């Protein structure tokens, strides 16, 4: 029978490995980057792989149970918001929740599944800031592939030390409670693994988890299986009388309406991107993305305004 495997603690593991190999540091393992049949990796115990992930992920969940800003949805609006917020306020704990495995929402393609992405001026300035190349067509610019924008902003957002993203994690509900003035305030989100959220009809009692924050930014896109989540929940809670519903396509009306309308729609909840078209009843714009960037930036500015004009204690607005 094989001897029982003794699994070292996370902190002991590198040391034990190093001792076993007769070296004083993990970096001295014999490795070889050779592509002629001699490639050799540093040794690893399977449990180390598990613990490397578990320790970081659950520490992150523990820490972010109280966040400064939660962003629901990592489409072009949510990511633009996260970028501007993280850059402007490195002191804030920004937590992005994305229901899909792959973040990016509808920004991996342009219209009708074609790859170029159109952005009207002056939103091209955001592309310049991010370092995304484009062709200038006068009133608008074109990125050769939408994924160039989305992959660039994703890599920048995730590089900020104050940003975390939980993918495959759906917001199932909002925490709504009375604030210090006796007004209804959105004070957090109710979360679950998306695969669980999609299976409430097949299994009973799969309770969710919660994250509290003084400011929630909702960026869940236009209506769809998961889209316009918060706008629809505001209706079912009675905080919004009815959905405005996205109107017919008019690019010239739609883009400024979204950017200029980006705001705290109820205390504690800032709405950005195409979700706002469902809330307010503004026009759809189709595959032109400048309004998503600018609306996300405005949502970040709104979040900073809310935080700067209130007193926050342990994730709650108290004055
Ligand atoms: C094929 C195609 C069709 C388009 N159709 C339209 C259109 O009809 N009208 C229009 O104006 N623009 C349209 N566009 C343009 C563009 O896609 C959208 O305007 C843009 O993607 C909206 O950006 P957003 O960030 O607001 O939302 P999205 O890009 O939709 O991002 C929302 C994100 O939120 C996540 N999410 C949703 N619910 C939850 C939840 N409960 N918890 C956690 N995460 C959640 C989603 O998974 C998604 O990643 C289309 C583009 C394409 C390529």
What does this structure look like?
This is Thi4 family-domain-containing protein. It comes from Irpex rosettiformis. With 319 residues, the protein is an alpha/beta fold. It has a single domain, classed as 3-Layer(bba) Sandwich (FAD/NAD(P)-binding domain), CATH 3.50.50. Helices cover 34% and strands 21% of the residues. It binds flavin-adenine dinucleotide. Flavin-adenine dinucleotide (FAD) is lined by residues 72-78, 97-100, 105-107, 109, 111, 170-171, 219-222, 226-227, 229, 273-275, 284-287, 292.
SSE topology sketch:
Elements: H1 13-20, H2 46-64, E1 69-72, H3 76-88, E2 94-97, E3 117-120, H4 124-130, E4 135-136, E5 140-143, H5 146-159, E6 163-166, E7 169-178, E8 184-193, H6 194-197, E9 209-212, E10 215-218, H7 229-237, E11 247-249, H8 251-261, E12 263-266, E13 269-271, H9 275-280, E14 283-284, H10 290-308, E15 312-313, E16 316-317
This protein binds flavin-adenine dinucleotide.
Mean pLDDT: 91
The small molecules bound here are: flavin-adenine dinucleotide
Shape: globular
> Would you count the extended β strands for me?
16
> How helix-rich are the residues, as a percent range?
25-40%
Distance between the termini: 66 Å
Q: Beta-strand percentage?
A: 15-25%
Instruction: Give the C-alpha Rg.
Output: 23 Å
Order of helices and strands: HHEHEEHEEHEEEHEEHEHEEHEHEE
CATH level-four homologous superfamily name: FAD/NAD(P)-binding domain
Backbone structural class? alpha/beta
Which CATH C-level class is it? Alpha Beta
